[in-house]
Amino acid sequence: MQESNTSNRKKDHIELCLSENVSFKTKTNGFENYEFEHYAITEVEFNKIDLSTRFLKKKINYPFLISCMTGGTEEAKSINEKLATVAKEFQIPIGVGSQRQALEDKQYHSTYRVVRKNAGNVPILGNIGAAQVAKSKKIIDEIRLLIDLVEADGMVIHVNPLQELLQTEGEPDFKGLIKNIEKICSKIKTPIIVKEVGSGISKRSAKRLLEAGVQGIDVSGAGGTSWAAVELMRSNKEDNYFQEWGLPTSYCVRKVKELKKDFDFTLISSGGISNGVDIAKSIALGADLSASARIILQEVMKNDVNGVVELIQSWFSTVKRIMYLTGCKDIQTFKKVGLIRKEELY
Fold first, then answer.
1. Is the pLDDT of residue 165 over 70?
2. Fewer CB in a 10 Å sphere around the end CB: N or C, the chain?
3. SS3 319
4. Closest to 7 measured CA to CA, from 131, 104, 80, 78
5. 3-state secondary structure of 94
6. How far is the C-alpha of 166 from the C-alpha of 156, rounded, in Å?
C-alpha cells in the first residue's frame, strides 16, 4: 500500500540520518570564509543583550527554528513530543516533517498533533512536498487540512528536485508547482514558506517564489545533510558528483537577502548550521532566523530533551558573546553589523 511505503521511507530517513555519515564530503556551508569585525570599544551591557525577535506575528526568544524533521511514523511521535517540549521551553518555532502521509490516511495523525499539544503557543510550521503541491487537483482543501492538523502558524512547501530525482520511489515531475503556489498564496491566509532540503535556493528561484506570493524563504543550502547521499545509500548506489550538488548556505543567504530591497519576506538560514558561530554569521549576512534539523535529531535521540536544551543554550551563549564583541545590543542591530571576507584580512 502507498501509505506503508511512505511510512517506511520516513523510517529509513530517520535511521540513516542517525546512523550514517550523510553529510556533504567536500562542500561546506561557507561560513568559515567570513569573520566578524571586532569592536574594541563596545559599551554593550552583556547581561542586557536582547536575543528576541518576531516570527509569524509572535515574539520568539531566539532567532532560531527547530527545523522540519519527521512525522507519519510511530517513532516520529516520541521525537516530535520531545522537540515540541524544547520549543516551548525556549519559546522558539518548530516545524513538523512532511505531512504527505497525513493526506493518505489518518493512522499517524497523532504524530503531528502532538506538536501543538506539547509546544504551547510557539509558532508551528506545517510541511508538504513540492511534488504533492504540483500534481494536486484539490490543493486548497489539502493545505487547509494540513494546517488544521497541526494548528500551524505557517506552512512550508519543501522543494527537493535532487532528492526526488535520485529516490527510488521519487516523483521529480514538478510541472504546475508555481501555478499551484500562486493559488495557495492567494486563497490561504496562513503564510507560505518555501524551503529546499540541502541544495539551496538561488536568488533567481527566490525571486520567482516571492512574485508568486510566498512570505518566507528557507534557503536550506549545501554543507549539512546531503539528501542525495541519503537516497543513494537507500538504493545502494554511489554518485560522487550529485552527492555534492548544491549552493552553499552562506552564498544563498547573501544573494537572497538582496531581494529584501523589493520584497517583504522572512529569510531563514539552514543547511549545515551546527554551532553558535554559524547562527551568528547567518544573522549578520542577512537572515532573520537560522534553523537546524539533523544535529537536533541526533542530540534528542542520544541525550533526550536535556541534551537539546543544553545544546541550544550553548549556541546562543556564543551568539551573545559575539554580539557583545561587535557592539550589538539586540538582533536588529546585529543584522546590520556585516561580515568581513577572510581574503580582506590579509
1. yes
2. C
3. helix
4. 104
5. strand
6. 22
- Residue 61's CB is within 10 A of a number of other CB atoms, namely 15
The answer to whether the CB of 101 falls within 8 A of the CB of 120 is no
Q: Is the pTM of this model over 0.85?
A: yes
Average pLDDT, integer, range 181-206: 98
Q: Scanning the structure block, which residue is given the C-alpha cell 548506489?
A: 237
Nearest in space to 101 (alpha carbons), one of 129, 60, 130: 129
155 confidence band (pLDDT: 50, 70, 90): very high
Q: Are 274 and 318 in contact (CB under 8 A)?
A: no
Q: Of the candidates 99, 93, 129, 128, which has an alpha carbon nearest to the alpha carbon of residue 112?
A: 99
- Work out the average pLDDT over 325-340: 96
What string of DSSP letters covers 196-251? -SSS---HHHHHHHHHTT--EEE---BSSB-HHHHHHHHTT---HHHHT-S-BHHH
Name the β-bridge partners of 290: 64, 269
DSSP E strands in the chain: the ranges are 34-35, 53-55, 58-60, 64-66, 94-95, 124-129, 154-158, 192-195, 216-218, 266-270, 289-292, 340-341
Q: What is the CA radius of gyration of the chain?
A: 19
Q: Report helix, strand or coil for 329.
A: coil
- Residues of the chain with pLDDT > 70, as a percent, come to 97
Give the CA distances from residue 195 to residues 78, 159, 221, 269, 311, in Å, rounded to whole numbers and listed in that order. 25, 6, 9, 10, 24
Q: Does domain 2-345 have CATH number 3.20.20.70?
A: yes
**Residue 200 grid coordinates:** 539551496
Give per-residue burial for 79-107: e unless 16+ CB within 10 Å, then b: bbbbbbbbbebbbbbbbbbbbbbbbbeee
Could you tell me the residue ranges of all domains in the chain? 2-345
Q: What are the pLDDT digits (tens) for 21-44? A: 888 999 999 999 999 999 999 999
102 pLDDT above the threshold of 50: yes
